[in-house]
């Protein structure tokens, strides 16, 4: 797992970065998928158009890019000095260019952003700041089998990640700050933290009524 951008990119500072985004779970981005035979070449233009749109909305320059079969390379220059000169109206317009308002509601949405100093501060700081959320943790839930993966859920809280595997009721625990590659499972050496994060994970899933995997009693009876 890569490190958080907040650890790599100084806030409000100029810089040039080579960024890579890769597909997961054997998904194919462009060209012909060797597994399914499907042709996804049309997506290449989608990605290029999206990059051009984002470059217009943010204070960045795109110096090079390559849209590959299952990943994307892009070299960008960040212009923090340009963004600092944007007034509230321009911040709002650029934000709504990225996340459009409902039809006919542009001016209303713009006025709501401009009038909210706290939200403007967060947008100017590239997401850094205080934002109210119902829960501290981030939960990812995959209660099914897909492309060779087994049912599992994960919880991210501060620097730690907990993974709960449903097949064998096993937990994994990683410190993402010290071990971004998730090579050292801490579940046995930190049982209290593991139990607490599992409790929070299960509480979060209950709160949203998440479907949990169920054993199939008929599985394997025909063998």
Helix content: 25-40%
Largest sheet: 4 strands, antiparallel
How many E strands? 7
Number of helices, counting only DSSP H or I runs of 4 residues or more: 7
Strand content: 15-25%
Instruction: Give the N-to-C terminal Cα separation.
Output: 39 Å
Rg calculated over all Cα atoms: 22 Å
Question: What's the arrangement of secondary structure elements?
Answer:
Blueprint: H1 5-8, E1 15-22, H2 43-57, E2 60-67, E3 71-78, H3 80-84, H4 88-98, H5 106-114, H6 117-124, E4 138-142, E5 152-157, E6 160-165, E7 170-175, H7 191-207
Helix pairs in contact: 4-5
Describe this structure in words.
With 223 residues, the protein is α+β, with helices and mostly antiparallel strands. The protein has three domains: 5-81, no CATH class; 86-124, no CATH class; 138-207, Arylsulfatase, C-terminal domain, CATH 3.30.1120. 31% of the residues lie in helices and 21% in strands. It has seven helices and seven strands; from the N terminus they run αβαββααααββββα. It has helices at 5-8, 43-57, 80-84, 88-98, 106-114, 117-124, 191-207; strands spanning 15-22, 60-67, 71-78, 138-142, 152-157, 160-165, 170-175. The strands form two sheets. It has a four-stranded antiparallel sheet with strand order 4-5-6-7, covered by helices on one side. α4 crosses α5 (106-114). The chain is globular. The mean pLDDT is 85.
């Amino acid at each position: 797992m890569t490190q958080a951008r907040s650890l790599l990119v100084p806030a409000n500072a100029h810089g040039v970065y080579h960024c890579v985004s890769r597909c997961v779970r054997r998904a194919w981005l462009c060209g012909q998928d060797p597994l399914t035979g499907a042709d996804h070449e049309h997506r290449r233009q989608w990605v290029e158009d999206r990059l051009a749109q984002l470059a217009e909305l943010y204070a960045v320059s795109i110096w090079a890019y390559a849209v590959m079969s299952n990943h994307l390379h892009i070299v960008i220059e960040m212009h923090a000095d340009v963004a600092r000169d944007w007034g509230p109206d321009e911040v709002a317009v650029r934000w709504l260019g990225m996340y459009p308002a409902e039809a006919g509601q542009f001016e209303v949405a713009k006025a709501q952003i401009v009038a909210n100093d706290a939200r403007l501060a967060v947008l100017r700081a590239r997401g850094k700041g205080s934002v109210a959320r119902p829960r501290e943790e981030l939960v990812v839930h995959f209660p099914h089998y897909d492309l060779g993966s087994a049912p599992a859920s994960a919880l991210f809280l501060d620097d730690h990640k907990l993974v709960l595997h449903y097949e064998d009721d096993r937990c994994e625990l990683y410190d993402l700050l010290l071990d971004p590659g998730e090579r050292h499972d801490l579940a046995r050496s930190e049982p209290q933290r593991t139990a607490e994060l599992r409790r929070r994970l299960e509480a979060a899933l209950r709160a949203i009524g998440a479907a949990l995997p169920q054993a199939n009693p008929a599985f394997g009876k025909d063998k």
